[in-house]
Amino acid sequence: ANRKDWLAFICTDTTLSEEEIIRIYEKRWQIEVFFKACKSMLNLIGECHSLSYDALTAHVAIVFTRYMLLVTEQRQNEDQRTLGELFFFLVDEMVDITFSRSLGILMDALMASLQEILKLSDEQLVAFTADFKARLPEYLRNALHPKAAVA
């Protein structure tokens, strides 16, 4: 009802052409859309309650990776659905697994790859695993062995 048929862009750099101003604004708008999607649909805010810098950094990286996977899926399939619709579709399809279970899956895959590609013996693999786990931060060691953390 009160919508205007034009949009004004104000730019302090008078050397830029109109096309360049619009191109820069378009990039800025894409960034705004990215952060809105990350906040509202991909749980950038509210999912991680840690005070650890490393945990927060990891959470942001995971959220951004979720976004990249959705965008890649959308582009590869030339999907006409919005990112929000695609996100809710994928959430319905995914099984919710715990962090410790996810970490265990990654560790199993790493061990299998080491054994397959580097042809490590069982003894070497056990030694590698022990050394690797010893180098992990305590919260990750506890996540790999949640029962040992309680004891």
Task: Please render the helix and strand layout as text.
Blueprint (H helix, E strand, L loop, with lengths): L17 H23 L12 H24 L6 H11 L5 H19 L4 H14 L2 H7 L1 H5 L1
Overview of this protein structure:
One of its GO terms (biological process) is DNA transposition. Residues 12-69 form the Transposase IS4-like domain. InterPro entries: RNaseH-like_sf (IPR012337), Transposase_11 (IPR002559). The protein has 151 residues and is mainly alpha-helical. The protein has 2 domains: 18-93, no CATH class; 99-150, no CATH class. Helices cover 68% and strands 0% of the residues. It is built from 7 helices and no strands. It is elongated and about 70 Å long. The model has no long low-confidence stretch (mean pLDDT 81).
